[in-house]
């Protein structure tokens, strides 16, 4: 994101604001602006849940209260991100037009309630959304205080109504043209499930068809496409009134209902809502930081540019199992982590706690006490002041030499398949184990799906590439032949885009590249392990053996060199890690899910040998992470204790503190230090 997309010169800092809940308290609305300025907030999001107040009766609009709020905000130096209100429709709409309500998998239509309880296909709902969006745009799209359209809120969910069934069939007709093509693609001869009429095709249902994996996969794609089409519909209803006003949607944590990579050309700016639970009893803050950082990097990778942190909590949530408070320092650290990974904003849900309903105990900048002399408010105020001094970072970006495959279709297919391990294949967790090795080394990473260009990278990591989309094997071949390094794993190249198994060996299309063929794969029970040891004089020689679990691939090398062998079971002595040279490049094949230390040791050796330019040129203590935006380094201490760090090279300067970094220095618990060099 270039800053001129919104024509602002500083980091955005603010919150979701719901003035419609306080229209009978003008004193509170006036106090809000005073407190926003005190908290160093320069933006708020408004309107996402305001439909009932904006259109209390069908066709009767009341925008004056919103206009007054936007005017007063702008007069006080606070911008508005204006939301379209489709995320929560008014009661009158559902009562008069019940077709707008969703139908669940069991084919029962919902009653009015909740939030995203609406059908994305319904022509009536689309028309009503376009009407109110158009009226909002007519009134506010050219207001100098409005800098961004926030389309709806956290799009998601699916509908199984007759309208959606017909839309699904039309989607299939467009894709496959004939029933014969569908029957072939879905392998419906199995169990005598062949379709002889388009009307026989229904979405997956617990009391109907759920065992045709091609159907399940295409339904996921349809739901994603239909949601994106609705997003496009919303965008097109507001854009004509000011084509230069950018759009965003707030994406969610590892949400797989929408293929987010497919949105890269549909919205102007990527944003997402981040709600990690820090200070867990069952996981370290370092591990939680890795999980969060990976999602930040996915968001940045969608458009290969900075994104917005649209929502986070300044304290705790109320919808997670435990509402854990952030310890002192963690609000600054977690917020600056987002900036370090490419965010040009830190925003919260919510500005002020509501008095009633389901989110009255959700964290907020201003709680029910209503004043600024609280720990949370002061944490927010301190962060806002710091962000004001970092404007030079706004136009920076991250330029990774490493890409990791994280593909939505692949995830859908893995989650739906039966075997070889129905108690958990753990695709996301497996990808994250590879990512964590780079994360802890301070090496930036891009995430790609199979539609992306991988030629610009030096290293391409493709864990559990179960589905191999048509033509992607050629991208990989060309990448390796031209000098790239491929790292792929067990359970790769197994099926095509409709989940049909490849014939004549796996990994399909890549056996020559990796120099082996996978013959069998052994699923391990929870708690069952194997291990493997290096037989190489060069690779992974520092440790006797590494434990493995879950899946053990039994491979037959052709040209690949065996670097590690299994130590146990009937396949003792078979390859667990191989290396093959192909063209000017090389391909590693990891045949099992190793313990975490393997990935750290393996990738540490690999990046040193490849001499990646993005490796930080200084060391940091355990639990301290280095993240990079151009020539800025964010040094983040995720330990709840002080650590002593080594002196940094003399070409680094401190950005916004007076800490002496050219001799050993102390990082306080949860401290983040920014240096430039």
UniProtKB/TrEMBL annotation:
The active site is at 154 (proton donor), 311 (nucleophile). Its EC number is 3.2.1.23. Keywords: Glycosidase, Hydrolase, Metal-binding, Zinc. Residues 623-676 form the Beta-galactosidase C-terminal domain. One of its GO terms (cellular component) is beta-galactosidase complex. It catalyses: Hydrolysis of terminal non-reducing beta-D-galactose residues in beta-D-galactosides. Substrate binds at residues 115, 153, 319. This is Beta-galactosidase. It comes from Turicibacter sanguinis.
